[in-house]
Design a protein that fits this description.
The chain is of the alpha/beta class and about 325 residues long. It folds into 2 domains: about 35 residues, no CATH class; about 290 residues, TIM Barrel (Alpha-Beta Barrel). Helices cover about 40% and strands about 15% of the residues. The protein is built from 11 helices and 10 strands. Strands 9-8-7-6-5-4-3-10 form an 8-stranded parallel β-sheet. A two-stranded parallel ribbon has the order 1-2. The two termini are about 20 Å apart. The structure holds zinc ion.
Length: about 325
């Protein structure tokens, strides 16, 4: 309530100044005289690491939202994102929409992607990442112990990476395995075999492979995920904070373990047992401030803060509001009692 009153006052001041033709409102002076308000310094998304020891007070990530590239409703979704002020997206592939990727020729797919890339231009939205397909056990399992399935997955994912060159994304989010893993060390070396091929295709598009921490599968713990990515200088990780919450409870701890290997993020919440992909504030993740500050100072992450809520449960505006009203206020310096 106090915050809304304060902003109402500022708004009245601004309108007043405009009406009288006076100087515009002096934000620098406002933040100088209000030490408990955090002056936002917007980060232009980049894959480059932040400087070590940099003063990150007020650094504000650009936010992004996960969008299903195969939805028939993609134009409405992009429109809603623009309206909510969200300028970045992660493109993901799910077959719930009207477009069946697997049964199409390359030519068909490329023309569909061309249409989408024109829509992205129209709504001034930049794709930051692509979530590679993961929902088919025999086509999307890079760590399959069965070599035939592994190779099938490699070929399929390679085709997807090549066909998505038009989007010029920085990250390709990869699930290294699927389902329960029998022999962990074999699965890890199978995943590495696939990644060796995929990372070159990603690089040819100007992007990089970012392997995601998963629940109950390959790359669940940092030890396993590290075993997959540490041999590669040019392969990074995706931290899904919701998955980390189920794994160990305080996602900032998982983030710290990743260090400068962190390549991109998935922001979602849950109650610690089911992977609900709720918006922040609707689950029980206790350490949002620490998560945000770890990204800035330990991971030195300067990319996009990608929200990955489940399906159609939330609107783009609700994600933007969760950032503005739930996460950002946690970063303010605390008032002394
Ligand atoms: Zn995720």
């Amino acid at each position: 309530m106090r915050t809304s009153l304060r902003f109402l006052l500022i708004l009245l001041l601004l309108v007043g100044c405009k009406a009288k033709g006076q100087e515009p409102f002096d934000w620098d002076e406002y933040y100088r005289t209000h030490p408990y308000e955090l002056k936002p310094i917007d980060i232009a998304p980049t894959t480059a690491l932040g400087k070590e020891g940099e003063d990150t007070k007020g650094f504000r990530y650009a936010i992004g939202y996960s969008v299903n590239i195969l939805d028939d409703t993609i134009e409405q979704e992009l429109q809603a994102l623009q309206k909510a002020g969200i300028r970045y997206i992660e493109l993901k592939f799910k077959y719930s929409g009207g477009y069946n990727f697997q049964s199409r020729t390359d030519e068909d797919i490329l023309s569909h992607f061309d249409t989408i890339s024109h829509l992205l231009e129209k709504y001034e939205i930049t794709p930051w990442s692509i979530h590679l397909p993961y929902d088919n056990a025999s086509w999307t399992n890079p760590g399959a112990v069965d070599e035939k399935i592994r190779k099938q997955s490699e070929d399929y994912l390679l085709r997807v990476i090549r066909l998505t060159a038009i989007f010029k994304v920085k990250c390709y989010v990869l699930h290294a395995g699927k389902g329960t893993i029998g022999n962990m060390s074999t699965a890890i070396s199978q995943a590495k075999k696939t990644i060796t091929v995929l990372k070159e295709a990603a690089k040819a598009n100007g992007g990089r492979i970012c392997v995601e921490n998963l629940i109950g599968s390959l790359a669940y713990n940092w030890e396993d995920l590290q075993a997959i990515v540490s041999d590669f200088d040019d392969v990074y990780t995706t931290l899904d904070v919701g998955h980390a919450n189920i794994n160990m409870g305080h996602p900032s701890e998982y983030a710290k373990q990743m260090g400068t290997k962190l390549g991109t993020v998935h922001i979602d919440d849950n109650l610690g047992s089911t992977d609900n992909h709720l918006l922040p504030g609707n689950g029980n993740i206790p350490d949002w401030k620490e998560i945000y500050e770890t990204f800035l100072n330990v991971n030195r992450y300067r990319g996009v803060f990608i929200f990955e809520p489940s399906g159609t449960s939330y609107s783009a505006q609700e994600a933007a509001d969760a950032y503005k009203n739930f996460i950002w206020p946690k970063l303010k310096p605390q008032k002394e009692e």
